[in-house]
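quick one, two chains, predict together pls
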Amino acid sequence: MPQLIHYMLDPFSRRIRLMLGELGIEAEVIEEKPWDNPDELLLLNPAGTLPIFIEDDQTVIPGVEALADYLEETRGGSADGQRGRTLLGNTPAQRAETRRLVAWFDVKFHREVSRLILTEKVERRLAPPGKGGGPTNMNAVRAALHNIRAHLDYIGTLAEHRNWLAGDDLTQADLAAAAHLSCLDYLGDVPWGVSASAKAWYQRIKSRPSFRPLLADHIRGMPPPRIYADLDF
Amino acid sequence: MPQLIHYMLDPFSRRIRLMLGELGIEAEVIEEKPWDNPDELLLLNPAGTLPIFIEDDQTVIPGVEALADYLEETRGGSADGQRGRTLLGNTPAQRAETRRLVAWFDVKFHREVSRLILTEKVERRLAPPGKGGGPTNMNAVRAALHNIRAHLDYIGTLAEHRNWLAGDDLTQADLAAAAHLSCLDYLGDVPWGVSASAKAWYQRIKSRPSFRPLLADHIRGMPPPRIYADLDF
């Protein structure tokens, strides 16, 4: 069985875990704290990032940018010889819209919101000193909590005009957005009151079977708030 | 004819300009300084980034993440009904390796090197105050000039073991690497002496016809050093 090396509060790992569920891919899911064995991680992925997927024949697919398309091509709608389910879309223009929004969350939201909060509230607290651990920079957290409001508004606007964020169907855009937001939700840091339509969209995606493994996540010494796993938050 | 809105010293725009050349795509290339008309830019791309591609039917494809795959799907090796040239690779594993390296340059190299130098030496100097202009932070530049050395080593190692960076064929990995490096080369900030094999790889890609438009770039008040357009630098 293929293996997926991931970290619970890594948004890129979470997008791939959601993809596994949506596409019905079986994999042995192995948790790795990015700061625990950085040298071993670099052997599998020179960029040092998660997630990493290892096929039965030991082919290693490292990083979300390579892996998301690889899974789509080998197990999803683009797989040779079959027309399975796609999480990108059915036309070039639709796939471009999906990729635009995936980049919105993985680049812009990450830089303005999730990277700041996850670095300061998770890595600083759980990693040992010298490996990323240290005092939390509350100014960075405050900036992120300010920035997240405009992003929730944007999600809300998209959700008001479309069935899912990129159009009629659920795509990787929804999975990317939910992956980032769910990490912050684990920390109780999503002000859902900002946008009723963003909240309604998140309730829908949170109710999907693919989301259940994420809702069962539990980091020792850092339990989630009660509403994290509650579908009626 | 489709339009490509780009900025000369934007590495993401440069990757797409190289793609146009490699895939033989004709487009009207329009330069836009990102800080000049931010509101108009946001209408075309809510993320505010370049490049932006506009089809004859006014379909807008904004941002390199959406656009690179869109061009590949509509004009390249994945286009329906034809088997044109691909800049991604011919197998899922090969395409994953290409995408891994594209992310290496667009995420890691950008964060550690090119974003720092281009922000501090181009945007600070050319943009008006309040739109990004201001004094250059030389500490950021020095950090980037330190970081670039390890990246040149990595490029050199790849180039010693492979024909092109991602394998046998030229791919978007080469175009992404060359796009970032050529922006810095315009500023005279690439220490080519670090790696003879990285330099030899760059000489090969710099000699391609697709590179000529980039070598003709000239920013008023900020001319490139002589070696920028010299194939025997």
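Chain A has eight helices and four strands.
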